[in-house]
Amino acid sequence: MVDVLVIGGGNAALCAALMAREAGASVLVVEASPREWRGGNSQHTRNLRCMHDAPQDVLIDAYPEEEYWQDLLKVTGGITDEHLARLTIRASSTCRDWMRRHGVHFQPPLSGALHVARTNAFFMGGGKALVNAYFRSAEKLGVQVRYDTPVVSVELDGDRFVAVRTTKGERIEAKSCVLAAGGFESNREWLREAWGQNERGEWPSDNFLIRGTRFNEGMLLKHMIDAGADSIGDPTQAHMVAIDARAPLYDGGICTRIDCVSLGVVVNREGQRFYDEGEDFWPKCYAIWGRLVAQQPGQIGYSIIDQKAIGRFMPPVFPGTTANTLAELARKLGLPEQAFVKTVEDYNAACRPGSFDHTALDDCATSGLAPAKTHWARPINTAPFYGYTLKPGVTFTYLGLKVNDRAAVHFGGRPSPNLFVAGEMMAGNVLGKGYTAGVGMAIGTAFGRIAGTQAAAAARKVEHATA
Amino acid sequence: MQQLEALTREASALAGGGYPVIPILSANEAEVGRQMQICNACRYCEGFCAVFPAMTRRLEFGKADIHYLANLCHSCGACLHACQYAPPHEFAVNVPQAMARVRIDTYAEYAWPGALGSLYKRNGLTLVLATALALVLFLVLTMAARGTLFPGPLAGNFYAIFPHNMLALMFGVVFGFAVLALGIGVARFWREVSPASETGRSQEPSLRRDATVEVVTDVLRLKYLDGGHGEGCNNADDRFTLWRRRFHHFTFYGFMLCFAATSVATLYHYLLDLHAPYPLTSLPVILGTSGGIGLVIGPVGLLWLNLRRDPAHGDLAQRPMDRGFIALLLLISLTGLALLVWRDTGAMALLLAIHLGVVMALFLTLPYGKFAHGIFRSAALLKNAIEKRQPNRLQLGSE
C-alpha cells in the first residue's frame, strides 16, 4: 500500500506529491486525463503572484505582505479567510527556490506583461512547462504516475481516509490522501444547476465557454460534499473572463482573451452599453467582464473599437469583424442598427477632450453618460471599425472544501487526520470571489506543499499506529 | 478561401496594373501565419528563443515575415513541449514543424540557379547521385593515372596520383561555385526579408557593429540551442539536453578545423613551398586530425539524437536530408582519418580516391542541402539583431 495518494495532476497535486516524496513517503499520483492533456488548468497558467520585500531575481521593487493582502481583500470584497490568505501570501515569497530545484524556470516578464513585473514571477514557457518540469522531477524521485484514472469516490472510516474508487471500479488504498482534482467548471450539468434559469428564461451557463481543462468534472468534489465534507463558497463564483465567442468550448486558454475592451465600448445584444469600460487597466479588471457579460441577454457582448486602437492592445487570436461605417458593423454583427449607432454616437458626443494615454489612467472621460467611461474615452469615429463578439469564459470555479492551515478536509468542523485538499478544490477559502493574476497558482503552490507535507506526516502516524 | 481571394486580387491587379501585387502564401506559409497569430495572442514562449520576441513586433504575418521567422527558428522543440495548444488541442500548434516546412521551401525558393532549388526537394537522390558520381570520378581518375587502384605504397604522397594543381582546380571551381550559389541565395533571402528601410542603413555604425558582434557570438555559441535557460533544447521528450548543442559544436568546429587544415596546407604549398605529405606533428595534420575527430563525434552524436528525436519535432519528410548530410560528414571524417592512418600503405590510393570522392560530393551538394541552414539562420539572426535595436512601433500597453 502506498503512503500518500495524490488525486489530480495539476500544480497543486504535483507540489503535494513532490513534498510528500521529499518527506520520505511513497507516492502515487492518479490523473484523470490522458498524458497529453495532463496538468489540469495549470497548463494554461503563466505566473505566480509573489510577495517580496525587495527586488528578487525576476521581480522588481517590492510587493509587501500588506499590499498583497489589500489587493486580495479588494478583489474578493472581503470574502476571504485572512489567516489562510496571509499564509498563502507568505508562502509565495519563499517557494521559488524550491520550484527551481524541481526544474521550473522563471523569466523576466516580456512584451505582453510588463505591467506585472513587480507582482508576478513568470514561468518560462508558461504553465505547461512548469507541469512538465514537476512531472519529470516527480518521476525521477520515484513518484508513480497513472494517467487516464479519474476517481469517483472516496471510502471513509468516519473522518479518516481509507481508499478511493476509480471510474473503472478499481479500489486504491493509501495511508493518506491529497485531493487536488480541480473545480467543476467543465461539468455542464453542474454549471446549469448552479447558475439556474434567469428572468428571461435563459440558462446562462449554456452559453459559457470553458477556458480551462475539459477534465475538471468535479466528480470528486461533489462526492466529498455529499459525503459530508464541509464546503465553502458560492457555486456561481468563478474566475470568469469575457473571451472571444469563437473560442473552443474547452482549453481556449489565454489566447482567446479580448484586450481591447478598455480602448472602446462594449454593448450587449440590444446595442446598449452596460459598464464602465475604462474603469481600470485591463489586467486589473479583466476578470470582472465574464460575469458582466453573463448577466446580459443571451450572455453575449460586443467589444467595439476603431482604427485608432489598432496596435495598442494584445493581438487577438481571431480577426475582428470589420466595417467602414457603424451601421455596416451593426449589420455584420447582427446588432439592432439604430440602437447601436445611437449608443456609439451618444458615447462619442459625451467624450470630453483630454490627453489620451493608454499606458496611464488618463483624463479622457465621458461626461453626462450612463454608464460613464472614466478613462481612455475617445470617440469611435475612424474607419475601419472593428467588432469582437464576447462570451463568458470560465477558468475555474470557487466552490470547494473547507480547510484549515494544515490543508485538512473537515467533516462537521472536525479536521480529518489523513485527508487533505489543495488547489482549486479549496481555493475558495482564500478566493471567495474576484481574481487577481497569479493568485490561483499561489494558492495551489502554498496548499499543495502543505497538503503533501501533512499527508506524508499522516502516513507516518498510520505506520506507527499499526506497528 | 483567403488564398483564393488573394489570387483574385492579384489577377485583377495584374490585369488592371498600378495595384500592388500581394504575395500569395503557400499552404506551408499560411500555416506558419495561422500559428503565429495564435502564438502572438499567447506569448508564453517569449523567453525561449528569438522567434517569439521577433513575432511580438508584428500584428500580421506576410510572406517576408514568415520566411524570416522560419529561418530564425532553431527547431529546438522547447515551444512545442511547453505549448498548451499543441496537438491534440484543436489549434494544433507545432511551431518547430510548421517553421521547418517553410524553411526548406525558402532554401529552394532562393536557391541559385533557381532550377537547382528543386534538388532540396529530392535531397536523398541528390546526395546519392553526387556521392556516386564523385566516387566514380576519383576511382576512374586513379585508374587513369596509375592503371590500378593499388599502385603500392607511395609514402603518403597524394600528388603521385593526383597532381596538386589538378586537385586545386577541381575543388577550387566546385567550392567557388558553392560559395557563389549560397551567397546569391542568401542575398536573395536577405533582400526579401529585410526591406531597405528596415535593415538599419540609417543606423549608427556602433549599433550595426553591436548587432554584428551579437550575431557572430550567437552563431559561434549556438545560443538558441540553450533553451533560453541554459539547460539546452528538447530531443526525445520534454526533458532538456545540451547534447544537441554540444554535438553541433563538435560538428561545426570539426568542420572548421578541417577547413583550416586545408587552408594552412594551401598556404604552406604556395607561400612556403612546403608540400604534402606533412608530418604528423605539422600544423595542417594536427588541425585536420582534431577536426576529423570532431567531425566523427559530432555527426555520430547528431545521428544518435536524430534517431531518438520526438517525431513531432520538425518535419519528418526532411529527416532523409538531415541524416544524409550527417552521414556524408561522417564519411568525410572517417575516410580522412583512415587515409591518415594508412597513407603509407598500398591502400592509400584507394582511400584517397574515396575520401576525395565524398569531399567532392559534399562540395557539390553544399548549396542544395542541409548545409544551407547555417547560412540562412545566420542571416535571420542578423536581421533579428538589427531589428531588435530599432524602436518597436507597436504600443500594446502596459500599466
List keywords for this structure.
heterodimer, A: 467 residues, alpha/beta, FAD/NAD(P)-binding domain, Flavocytochrome C3, Chain A, domain 1, 6-stranded mixed sheet, 12 helices, 19 strands, elongated, B: 399 residues, mainly alpha, Fumarate Reductase Cytochrome B subunit, 2 domains, two-stranded antiparallel ribbon, 2 strands
Structure overview:
The complex is a heterodimer of chains A (467) and B (399). Helix content of chain A is 28%, strand content 21%. Chain A is built from 12 helices and 19 strands. Chain A has helices spanning 11-22, 65-76, 82-91, 96-101, 127-140, 188-195, 219-226, 282-285, 289-294, 326-333, 337-350, 439-466; strands at 2-7, 27-30, 47-49, 106-107, 120-123, 144-146, 151-157, 160-166, 171-179, 209-210, 231-232, 238-244, 265-268, 301-306, 321-323, 385-397, 400-401, 408-411, 414-421. In chain A, the strands form 4 sheets. In chain A, strands 1, 2, 6, 7, 8, 9, 18 and 19 form an 8-stranded mixed beta sheet that branches. In chain A, α1 runs parallel beside α12, α3 (82-91) packs across α12 and α10 (326-333) packs across α11. Chain A is elongated. Chain B folds into 2 domains: 2-112, no CATH class; 121-210 and 226-384, Up-down Bundle (Fumarate Reductase Cytochrome B subunit), CATH 1.20.950. Chain B has 14 helices and 2 strands. Chain B has helices at residues 2-16, 27-42, 51-55, 63-72, 78-82, 95-110, 123-146, 164-193, 205-221, 243-272, 283-308, 319-341, 348-365, 372-387, and strands at 233-234, 240-241. The mean pLDDT of chain B is 91. Chains A and B meet through α5 and α8 of A and α2 and α5 of B.
Helical content band of chain B: 55-70%
Q: How many angstroms does the end-to-end distance of chain A come to?
A: 15 Å
Shape, principal axes of CA atoms of chain B: elongated
Can you count the helices of chain B? Answer: 14
Q: Proportion of β residues of chain B? A: under 5%
Largest sheet of chain A: 8 strands, mixed
If helices are DSSP runs of H or I spanning 4 or more residues, what is the number of helices of chain A? Answer: 12
Which structural category fits the helices and strands of chain A?
Answer: alpha/beta
How would you state the average pLDDT of chain B, rounded?
A: 91
